[in-house]
Design a protein that fits this description.
This protein is of the alpha/beta class. It is 47% helix and 7% strand. The longest helix is centred in the last third of the chain and has 18 residues. The termini are far apart.
Length: 374
């Protein structure tokens, strides 16, 4: 039974460390959207503690609670007791999946990556007119969302690499597979094996990606340890672009959304801001920024399994952009761009894009003689 698994190892002590103070709820985007305690980290820990003390059995309410979380880490950042709620939630999900208890959307994700090379089950593999699997110093890894859903963001990054004369190549990449562990499954061994084989064949000494989740997977997951052992550097596109000056500026009022995967989970806050600072002086922070950033609602499987609440979280974030009167919302995560654009209301006229997209538009307008990006 799943409750026996939850009782095993270090998990009980980690669960009991929560003292129900509620500090996590102030930062939880899901609780702030729904006001449902069971969906906050505090609520999840109470449920798990009740199971440990035989006060509750596994039920639909537990499945609804534990599988509805973006894993953004805002709760852990605020917890005075040092409870790693996202880590506990992932462990509980894993134990539940072992016993066959799982949200159907996540079971579908696992099945899709068994049968296909990406989470969208798409057989067309766009390289945006670039050659792949060439010998080069750098491999650019687009990630599933960039390659199959936010093509303009991926293409803009490639255009900037061309503009900067970076010696790069694409590979016939497959999903990095990291998200499977977030929803209770294991990374399929063939996914990292195929990606690493293709990267090694290029002779590259670095992998650059526009997807902070792919970056974290390559840097931290055990399945990608051979990549790290080979001394291949893994970086986000913002860490590369911050070293360059593109000679363009904008007077538009710009703000920036810190993606959870790039910010709280990887500690990369200043590289994007360094680039933005070179593009203009009319930059303003959102009310919640850096480690206090609000999640866009896309992570942890939320976008696929609980779309309504995912979009509601994104709209709360966009309300802050409205209140600032910003012309442009920049972010450095293709999943954030995708979810925020999906949540954007028709009356909201600000642009939502990556920094690469913004720079590309500024360069095009400079070449075309326009003063501001379209």
């Amino acid at each position: 039974m799943v409750d026996r698994l939850i009782r095993s190892g270090q998990l009980p002590d980690l669960i009991r460390r929560c003292n129900h103070c509620g500090s996590c709820q102030a930062g939880c985007p899901l609780f702030r959207t729904t006001s449902r305690t069971a969906l906050s980290a505090r609520g999840k820990m109470i449920i798990l503690q009740d199971i440990l003390e035989d006060r509750q059995e596994i039920c639909e309410g537990l499945i609804e609670s534990l599988f509805q979380c973006t894993l953004c880490g805002a709760c852990a950042a605020r917890c005075p007791a040092g409870v790693d709620a996202p880590g506990i939630i992932k462990a509980a999900r894993r134990d539940m999946v072992r016993t066959g208890i799982c949200h159907p959307a996540f079971r579908g994700m696992d099945q899709t990556l068994t049968e296909h090379r990406n989470i969208y089950a798409t057989e067309e593999h766009d390289t945006f007119g670039r050659k792949a699997s060439q010998r080069a110093e750098v491999v650019y890894f687009m990630g599933c969302v960039g390659r199959y859903r936010e093509g303009e963001a991926a293409a803009s990054s490639l255009d900037l690499l061309d503009y900067l004369h970076i010696d790069y190549t694409l590979v016939d990449e497959v999903c990095c597979g990291g998200a499977l562990e977030d929803v209770g499954f294991s990374i399929h061994e063939d996914l990292p094996a195929r990606n690493m084989a293709m990267i090694f064949d290029t002779g590259a000494n670095a992998v650059v990606t526009g997807c902070p989740y792919c970056m974290r997977t390559f840097r931290n997951k055990e399945a990608y340890k051979p990549l790290r052992d080979a001394g291949i550097e893994v970086m986000h596109i913002s860490q590369l672009l911050k070293e360059f000056d593109f000679g363009v500026r904008s007077e538009l009022k710009v703000t920036y959304h810190d993606p959870c995967d790039l910010g709280r989970h990887a500690g990369i806050y200043e590289a994007p801001r360094h680039i933005i600072g070179k593009l203009g002086s009319n930059f303003v922070e959102l009310p919640n920024h850096h480690g206090d950033s609000l999640c866009c609602g896309a992570g942890g499987g939320m976008r696929g399994a609980y779309a309504r609440n995912s979009i509601a979280m994104a709209r709360r974030r966009l309300e802050q952009v409205d209140e600032l009167g910003a012309d442009v919302l920049l972010t450095e995560c293709n999943s954030c761009v995708h979810n925020l654009n999906n949540a954007k209301l028709r009356k909201q006229k600000f642009q939502i894009c990556t920094i690469s997209q913004f720079i590309k538009r500024l360069l095009e307008d400079k070449w075309n003689g326009s003063s501001e990006p379209r």
